[in-house]
Amino acid sequence: MATIRQEDFIQSIADAFQYISYYHPADYIKALAAAYEREQSPAARDAIAQILINSRMCAEGHRPICQDTGIAVVFLKVGMNARWDASLSVQQMVDEGVRRAYNNPDNKLRASVLLDPAGARTNSKDNTPAVVHTEIVPGDHVEVICAAKGGGSENKSKFYALNPSDSIVDWVLKTVPTMGAGWCPPGILGLGIGGTPEKAMLLAKESLMAPVDIHELIARGPKNRIEELRLELYEKVNALGIGAQGLGGLTTVLDVKILDYPTHAASLPVAMIPNCAATRHAHFHLDGSGPAKLDPPSLEDWPKLAYDAGKGRRVNLDTVTREEVAGWQPGDVLLLNGKLLTGRDAAHKRMVDMLNKGEKLPVDFTDRFIYYVGPVDPVRDEVVGPAGPTTATRMDKFTRQMLEQTGLLGMVGKAERGPAAIEAIRDNRAVYLMAVGGAAYLVSKAIRGARVAAFDDLGMEAIYEFEVKDMPVTVAVDSKGTSVHQTGPLEWQARIGKIPVVKG
Fold it and tell me: In this structure, how many other beta carbons lie within 10 angstroms of the beta carbon of residue 312?
């Protein structure tokens, strides 16, 4: 009978969440490197290169792959005969491990968890509580999976109660394009089929914890209906042409995972949850012999790539004019230099409330650019921690008012903009620039100075002023309202030409 000691369990949880903050699973990196080699879309290939370069930098520097270091999710399989030498509950022990990991001074992670979600939305400041799923199984060991899921991918989770005669494939192909690029493809799709609605969602999440092995399945061929479905969806989802970061390309998913469970005769519940380009999970067993030991991956698994900043057009943010912006074309690669303001959900809400009351904003946005970001706190000699973009569509409802009442000239974020934001950009001759989600540490190296400019009480959601040098971005919506997230996937779906457009 194994005795699991409280301190061993807590420290193992803490070590695992630190580990996954800077180490991608090796199977994911190998699959992404293969996708990079076969990618034919220049924009998608560049995005994948940035993700791979960022990943290697994080593995070497032990800093977060993504500024969104995720909500902590833990799957536990506890042996029936295991004995606990502990005074805390399992939830309390997990939370203490998460607390240690996220407040580690050598690699401080971003606290994103808010208490009172429907009310005050107050940051817990240590990313607790974690979401814990526990299963009691035969044996005397404890199996643990720690995962960190970012909000951009979690927000794209889908569920539908299909009729038993409906096609799962048709539903997936109709649904994936509605998810946009906020989940940071190329990633992995997890499907849960059957059971009840909540069981299907849990199956979908748990399926994402398995290794990327679609290439092995392709090589040997399917042995059952689930494997056939995985292969069919892998081929057809990639044939949609969405591509890396939604820019259009050959690879949208690196794998499709499926878990199923018996269901009611009248039901076909289906859940779909994506795992983003910052795929993060670690697996270990505790047998009573001490804390888990997680071996670092070999850096030989990472391709040796370097980002070529010379291919972009340099832009001086301190002197840029509306006339200059009007000459930028969709897909142009720019290198931003100068002072860049930041602001995301909470800051936008506060600013719009102030504008509605006729109050003066604490920051002048006239002819300035705003970056949708919530950075990680700096450590050692950093001016800022990893600072990749957040999903821009969450700011869509604020966009017209910000452009028309503050003089804002442009925005930088992740993924596509919705119709209302695109119309506002066109009407105000503004621009939207896209930075690569999943390249947060790489982006942070372009930030040479940082200070809080307003709303210090909002923590990572405060308004900062960054001093940037050669920060790489792509013109995603030009001043005429043309969006590369609309034109790119359509172009590459036509090029791939394997399936018809699914009409909903």
Answer: 19
